[in-house]
Task: inverse folding
């Protein structure tokens, strides 16, 4: 006896490849229906009445005016077909689907994320056709337009308020990139902070001509304008302009000079054969358990260099008080306070990615790329060690000194 199966069973008994294609078509069909329904609801809200409902005396005078020709919209799930509703009698602009939009915003965000992950611009069209469909609106300029979202995000980030941050430690350093023109090295002034819970916060990224006092002062003034309060300790390298600007912004703030930079400066003034021994001696000083012991070892090392290498001895004695500020803070936090490594460790993978980008021609776009990469990596940032001991270190709520 002949037996006939319902459509659903025939659908389920299709081959694996055919079944996959049918499922994808069904998903896109349902996505189109849901998206079309959202557009219709948007019109209902604009007209303040449902479809086929009569307008009350107080209602708006607008009317539905049919639909545009159905068109394909690129989405992360492939192309979906929708017909954009028209309205007459009142101004109406759809926020869900603007007039000339051919792909959803989540597609733009996905394109930007893939580009940040390393997908070359020239590979975009071939790679994305398989995901977005053969008719997806992709061109050589697609990623350029999409990356404009990064600049908008940078503007919003630079305008955010910082009043609610209770910073304990702050690191400041200049980051150099190889991206951009071959004859130009970009420097970006970076400020990173940690609050009383040990959480790290990227406070500022700004392109500058150099690490001058004026550049740092302008950056600190902007942070002040947005409500940032002074930290308990500032960690930076030996740039005199940075220290001068910091004292103007945060009078009396404790200052810690980066030991890694100091060690490099001293070793550069010694012969190559003496550098390993000098590095070991400086490391022993840096890891001394008590400040008097560290100062004593530093002076002994400086005296040993006085006769043969006076420049190294002078460099070693320079800024001694700034070298040992971390002893005034909890022992568990010393590993974070001896150097600007919290910034270097964050920007090392960022630099590797950014240096491969040879088309960061403008400082604004380069800054936006750095911010996007840092924001992506910030999800894996770890708390500071010993953060439970930081509560008492929160400074009094005195705002940064604003520039006149």
Result:
């Amino acid at each position: 006896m002949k037996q006939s199966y319902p459509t659903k069973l025939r659908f389920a008994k299709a081959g694996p490849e055919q079944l996959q294609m049918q499922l994808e078509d069904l998903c896109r069909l349902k996505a189109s229906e849901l998206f079309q329904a959202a557009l219709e609801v948007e019109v209902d809200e604009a007209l303040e009445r449902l479809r086929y409902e009569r307008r009350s005396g107080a209602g708006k005078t607008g009317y539905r005016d049919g639909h545009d020709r159905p068109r394909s919209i690129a989405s992360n799930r492939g192309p979906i077909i929708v017909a954009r509703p028209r309205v007459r009698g009142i101004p109406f602009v759809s926020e869900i689907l603007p007039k000339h939009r051919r792909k959803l915003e989540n597609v733009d965000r996905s394109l930007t994320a893939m580009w940040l992950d390393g997908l070359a611009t020239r590979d975009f069209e071939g790679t994305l056709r398989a995901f977005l469909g053969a008719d997806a609106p992709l061109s050589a300029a697609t990623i350029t337009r999409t990356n404009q979202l990064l600049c908008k995000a940078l503007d919003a980030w630079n305008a955010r308020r910082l009043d609610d941050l209770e910073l304990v430690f702050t690191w400041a350093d200049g980051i150099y990139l190889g991206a951009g023109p071959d004859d130009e090295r970009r420097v970006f002034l970076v400020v990173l902070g940690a609050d009383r819970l040990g959480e790290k916060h990227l406070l500022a990224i700004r392109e500058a001509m150099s690490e001058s006092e004026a550049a740092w002062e302008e950056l600190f003034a902007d942070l002040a304008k947005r409500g940032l309060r002074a930290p308990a300790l500032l960690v930076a390298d030996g740039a005199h302009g940075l220290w001068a600007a910091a004292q103007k912004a945060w009078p009396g703030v404790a200052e810690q000079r980066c030991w890694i930079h100091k060690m490099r400066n001293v070793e550069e003034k010694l012969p190559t054969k003496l550098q390993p021994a000098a590095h070991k001696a400086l490391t022993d000083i840096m890891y001394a358990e008590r400040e008097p012991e560290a100062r004593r070892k530093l002076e002994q090392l400086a005296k040993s260099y006085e006769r043969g290498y006076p420049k190294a001895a002078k460099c070693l004695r320079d800024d001694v008080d700034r070298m040992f500020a971390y002893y005034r803070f909890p022992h568990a936090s010393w590993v974070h306070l001896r150097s600007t490594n919290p910034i270097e460790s964050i920007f090392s993978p960022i630099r590797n990615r950014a240096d491969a980008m040879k088309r960061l021609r403008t400082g604004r776009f380069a800054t936006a790329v750095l911010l996007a990469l840092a924001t992506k990596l910030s999800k894996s940032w770890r708390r500071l060690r010993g953060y439970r001991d930081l509560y008492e270190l929160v400074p009094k709520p005195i705002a940064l000194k604003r520039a006149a």
